[in-house]
Amino acid sequence: MTMMIRRRFTAGALAALLVPRARAADTARAAAELGSSGRLRAAINFGNPILATRGADGKPQGLSVDLARMAAAGLGLELELVTFDSAGQVVEAATAARVDMAFVAIDPQRGAGLDYTPPYVIIEGAYLVRADSPLQRNEQVDRAGIRVAVGRGSAYDLFLGRTLKAATLVRAPTSPLVTDTFLAEGLDVAAGVRQQLEADARRLADRAALRLLPGRFMEIDQAIAVPKGRAAAQAWLAGFVEQMKLSNFVALSLRRHGVEGATVPP
C-alpha cells in the first residue's frame, strides 16, 4: 500500500532544524541517491506500534511517519509512504531497493543488504505468558519443550533464533498476530515488543489471564536503513537522526503519539 504525501514546510523552520548539520553538496548527493525514482519512498511498518499505527482515518501516523516527513522536506523530495504489516516485509523491500529508506531494528543478519544510521529510539523485547505459567524469569524460557511465538522476520525472531539453544520458535505471520498465535496454538511464551504485548494482554483479557515476565530479554535499537551502497544517503541520514534526537524532535513525537516505554539514545 502506498500513500503520496505532499506537505509544505516553511524554509525558515527547516533551515533552523536541518540545514546547519548538512552541507548543500552533501544534501544534493543524498537526495540523488534517495530520490532516484523521483520521490522518497519510505517504508512504514504497522507491525511495530512504537513506530507507526493507523489513525482513525486509516492513514499512517507515528514516529516513523514524522521522521519520514522531515527527511523528505530536508532533502527537497516528495514523500511516498509505502506501508507493510511486518518488519520482514520491510527488510525484503529495502534490501531489494523497492523502497529508499526503512525504519527497522539494527541486526547483523540484515546488514548484508542494508546500511544503518545510529539508533533513534531503543525499545524492549519481552516475554508474555499465561498467568498460571510456571515460568517466572526470562532465563527460564530457554528449556527443552518450551515453544515461543515470534513474528516472522522480526528483530526478536532473528535474535532468539541465534540465542535460544533448547526452546523452539513458532513463527506467526506478523508481529501483531504473535499473541493470538500463542493462544490459538497453546504455546508457552509469546515474544515481542513490550508495548504490543501489554496491549494484547488488555485486548484479550476476556479470553485468558496473561502476564509479562519481569525485565527484558533484549534491547532493540531502531534505526533508519537504506539499501546497501548508498553511502551519501546513509551519511546524510545519520546526521539527520542525530539532529532529530538533539532537537528533541524524537522525544516530542513519541509524546505526541502517546508512546511510553521507549528510550531516546544519547
What do you see in this structure?
It is a single chain. This protein has helices at 11-17, 24-34, 63-75, 87-95, 155-163, 178-184, 194-203, 231-246, 249-256, and strands at residues 2-5, 40-45, 53-54, 60-61, 79-84, 101-105, 114-116, 121-130, 147-151, 168-172, 189-193, 210-212, 218-227. The chain has 266 residues and is α/β, with parallel strands linked by helices. The strands form 2 sheets. Strands 1, 2, 5, 6, 7, 8, 9, 10, 11, 12 and 13 form an 11-stranded mixed beta sheet that branches. Strands 3-4 form a two-stranded antiparallel sheet. Strand 9 (147-151), helix 5 (155-163) and strand 10 (168-172) form a beta-alpha-beta unit. The two termini are 34 Å apart. Residues 5-12 have low confidence and may be disordered.
The quaternary organization reads as single chain
**Helical segment count:** 9
Helices and strands, in order, run as EHHEEEHEHEEEEHEHEHEEHH
Distance from N terminus to C terminus (CA atoms, Å) equals: 34 Å
User: Taking Cα atoms only, what radius of gyration do you get, to the nearest Å?
Assistant: 19 Å
